[in-house]
Design a protein that fits this description.
Layout lengths: L1 H28 L4 E15 L1 E18 L2 E12 L2 E5 L7 E21 L2 E20 L2 E21 L4 E15 L2 E17 L1
């Protein structure tokens, strides 16, 4: 009689544990999904007539979803750059012109391939809008201006899970800018970025 009572109880407990186990397994098998936020820093190089380099830094937010064995994501990013250049004696003796890169806005998507439960290899593409600040000084006169450059960004990287919700990443991206405020240009930008993030 005791066996007859214990058997249904044990069976009920086992059935109750199945959904929880399945949920834990699903979460473990798709760790590269969900809402995320990250901090970024890295090497920044701009080529447009002459080469300039510096440091890029900022942050990004994104959302990833597991679809048929791959990871599809969307992301937005805000960064700043330390790149600047200055020349003198351009129009008159003693004058100077300074150009600095300002904020950079990026929106795009990415496709990732989980090569292990903790490692994601991905490619990305999207739109970038970079701010260019200029300052021209001649004697006591200083003129400041700013313009926006529209471009396309392509990139690839590796994301590595380091905790239940945290991760680190390394990424290379290439941006090309063809236009500044309706003026045609051809500027290339290469960046090597490192990031640390958290998933919610």
């Amino acid at each position: 009689m005791r066996k007859l009572l214990l058997t249904p109880m044990a069976l009920g407990a086992a059935l109750a544990a199945v959904p929880a186990a399945a949920q834990a397994q699903t979460a473990e098998s798709v760790p590269h999904s969900g809402l995320r936020a990250e901090a970024l820093v890295g090497y920044d190089a701009l080529t447009s007539g002459e080469d300039s380099d510096g440091v890029a830094y900022g942050g990004a937010v994104g959302y990833d979803a597991a679809v048929g064995g791959i990871t599809l994501g969307a992301e937005g990013e805000y960064t700043q750059s330390s790149i600047k250049g200055e020349e003198g004696n351009l129009l008159v003796s003693g004058d100077s012109a300074r150009v600095t890169l300002g904020r950079d806005l990026y929106v795009g998507g990415r496709v990732g391939l989980p090569v292990s439960p903790a490692t994601l290899v991905y490619g990305k593409a999207g739109y970038t809008n970079a701010r260019i600040n200029t300052r021209y000084t001649a004697g006591a006169t200083t003129v400041r201006d700013k313009a926006n450059a529209d471009g396309l960004r392509l990139g690839a990287g590796v994301e590595q899970k380091i905790g239940s919700q945290s991760y680190v990443k390394a990424e290379y991206r290439y941006s090309n800018y063809k236009e500044i405020e309706d003026f045609d240009i051809d500027a290339d930008r290469h960046q090597l970025m490192a990031g640390v993030g958290i998933r919610f």
